[in-house]
# Entry
Amino acid sequence: MNLTIMSLTARAMLGRKRVLMLLPMPIILIGLTLIGVTSGASDAQWGPVVFSSLGISVILPLTALIIGSSALGLEIDDGTITHLLTKPLPRSEIVLSKLAVAWLVTAVATGVPLAAAALIAGSGTLAVGLVIGAAIGGLAYSALFLALSVMTKRPVAVGLVYIVLWENILVSYVSGTRIFSVRQHATAIADSIGNTQLIDASVSVTTALVMAVIFIVVGTVGATQRLRSFALTGDAN
Amino acid sequence: MTDIELNGVSRWYGNVVAVNDVTLTIGPGLTGLLGPNGAGKTTVLHLMAGLMAPSQGEVSVGGQSAWRNPEMYRSLGLVTERESVPGNLTAWEFVLSSAKLHKLPDPAEAARKALAIVELEDAQDRRISTYSKGMRQRSRVAAALVHDPTVLLLDEPFNGMDPRQRLHMMELLNGMAGEGRTILFSSHILEEVEQLSGTVQVIVAGRLAASGDYRHIRRLMTNRPHQFTVTSSDNRLLATVLMGHASVSGVSLEPVGVLVQANDYGTFTRALAKLAREHKIRITQLIPSDESLEKVFSYLVAT
# Structure
């Protein structure tokens, strides 16, 4: 870890308008929770829709995508990455510092509203489960999207393809693919701790933990390897 | 320890060859990498800075391979052409963070020194986004200098600078070269490097076209054949007079004026005024034919 890289990254990330895109999602989440609680419907009826389908399946991946793809991607886009690359730093140090910032921001931006919503719904254990689920899932997503930002010029587009096509469509038709879906991991972890009707997981927590660790390791190592041979593309002047 | 060596280096992008079999050694002192736009200068600099892998051949700095070798940056600094500065930082923060990333023992002192070298102390607490182009350039030079590198690469450092800033930058580079550092800068504008005292490497279409002492190359350039169009109070007389001068190889009388083919740019321009005065001809217009830089460089390649 490198504190200089981390503080530069955090400043650049939080100083942009892009960060405002994160605001509406928690508001919608808490609004829907209030509607669910006051509607008189049973927990099993509205809980999974709000916590799984919206919270973990939409808010967590989108937040991680916006943040994870910009942690290193913005610098690659505007060319300031050369300042970082021309320093005698192990590339793993750069990647780990960037990942740490992306993870922290993602975990806070998703964990806090999810926990607040769970508390409104009256489940303290679910709040804990969601915070841990969002933390582990957020780390796996961040590692994935950070790696994408070094490997492709369009990390947001590729990330959206993963979220929408793989996690939403493919997983619902081919059940075996769900073990490669980070949001299933996050849901399983939150469910096993929360232990309420408000959330419903479809993979075992052991599988979820193992697969999440694989995502984190492969993403981090992949990003580091790629950055080691990172070539500036540009005009051949 | 400070030599940059390219040994049979080529670099291609798909079917496009950007650098073609270049072998050169650059030692301590100031060296200009000259060539027209698109000649491959930036690619050469990026290869030297380890930001790009050679498709073929070897690139080394101080005896170490440049590619996939972050340790090399302890002794190398790079100022890229792309105006990439984190505009949300002040120059002080920017240079200080560079010093910290280099893990220098006293980053604040190093940053202070680097900003003093480029004379940016007065503006160091303003955000870089409020700077002029020349100031941004200097802030980037300061960041590249902060760890006191023995090798400094600069891509088009004079771009967008006014003559005074250019002179200052050239003095700065000359001074650093005088301390025994290896300084290499690229430029596509020959006039920019007039104050240069050092060696040049001329690169055209990805190939090393000429290398050597700048004064020699400069002489080749001033002695190159050149065309002028002259209009005067008596074009016919002027044509006759000019034909008699040794520096002129051809004259034709055109409706627009006298078209002169001079075989020596320098001698002709000096002789013209003298001849005109002697024969009481009034010159009303002297237009050097519009000569592109590519032409000048290809002339150099041909000689």
Remarks:
- DSSP finds nine helices and no strands in chain A.
- The first helix of chain A runs from residue 3 to 14.
- The CA atoms of residues 126 and 194 of chain A lie 4 Å apart.
- Residues 3-7+50-228 of chain A form one domain.
